[in-house]
Design a protein that fits this description.
Blueprint (H helix, E strand, L loop, with lengths): L3 H8 L1 E2 H9 L3 H9 L3 E3 L2 E2 L6 E2 L4 E3 L12 E6 L34 H5 L2 E3 L7 E7 L2 H8 L6 E9 L4 H6 L5 E8 L3 E9 L5 H7 L5 E9 L2 E2 L8 E3 L7
Helix pairs in contact: 2-3
Length: about 240
């Protein structure tokens, strides 16, 4: 019969148990810390709670010192053609790489593949549209962003071909939608649109119903969170003090 103590000594113990002992927290809390990318084993991030360790150096980010870590929310500057559907070949999750991370990201979090898969998209954009997209693993954040009873205000920048007449501008201001001209040349007109809640196709439909041809659509704000200064394709983690 195999001695279980001898086996544990040979194979080491689960990383989650070691982290729980270090932080003096529950095993479940330790697993959340590990999956969140806050733990390094010999200077390498390990996000697998079942990973076996012996005498390796275990480093835990200061954010997780009490076994509690903030759930991750990411904002991304979506580029044209990217899809907010996870099953798409060119989906936005593929943009969440170390190379496209904004230099202004001060969160200190390591976005592991396991953590990346847990992010859900809130308030998706059309494939052709660009701009601010939010992905989160926080159920409370997801509910807030999708709550139709208290919808967030969305600010969009649109570009159309040619001039916009006063009647067309009036028709682009139905109840709940404010549209104004931000720039104008004989060749194109820039529009600024603000409204509560967002459904893919809504802004484009309002514009095209006036006979105008839409050539570009970008979301620049959701609630109080601005996309700027993220460059196209860049992403960063939302900081705990930021509120939509």
């Amino acid at each position: 019969m195999t001695d279980p103590h001898a086996t544990a000594s040979t194979e080491g113990i689960r990383l989650s148990k070691r982290v729980a002992d270090i932080l003096k927290c529950s095993r479940a809390e330790a697993e959340q810390v590990i999956v969140g990318g806050w733990v390094k084993v010999n200077n390498l991030v390990v996000d697998e709670p079942a990973h076996r360790v012996k005498d390796e150096q275990i480093d835990i980010h200061s954010t997780a010192q009490r076994g509690k870590v903030p759930l991750l929310t990411v904002i991304l500057h979506k580029t044209p053609g990217q899809s907010c559907l996870s099953q798409s070949h060119n989906n936005i999750w593929k943009s969440l790489t170390p190379e496209t991370r904004s230099h202004q990201d001060r969160s200190g979090i390591t976005l592991t593949p396991r953590l990346q898969k847990s992010l859900q998209c809130a308030a998706a954009l059309e494939d052709a549209a660009t701009g601010l997209v939010v992905l989160t693993e926080d159920p409370a954040m997801l509910r807030k962003l999708l709550d139709e009873r208290t919808p967030l205000e969305h600010e969009m920048l649109a570009e159309v071909q040619g001039p916009v007449s006063p009647d067309q501008l009036h028709d682009m201001c139905p109840t709940g939608l404010k549209t104004s001209i931000s720039s104008a040349t004989p060749q194109k007109t820039g529009l600024r649109m603000a409204f509560k809640g967002y459904q893919p196709g809504y802004a484009a439909g309002v514009i095209e119903n006036t006979g105008l041809r839409l050539t570009g659509l970008k979301r620049v704000r959701m609630g109080r969170v601005l996309m700027a200064p993220l460059a196209p394709g860049e992403w960063r983690a939302l900081m705990p003090y930021e509120r939509f």
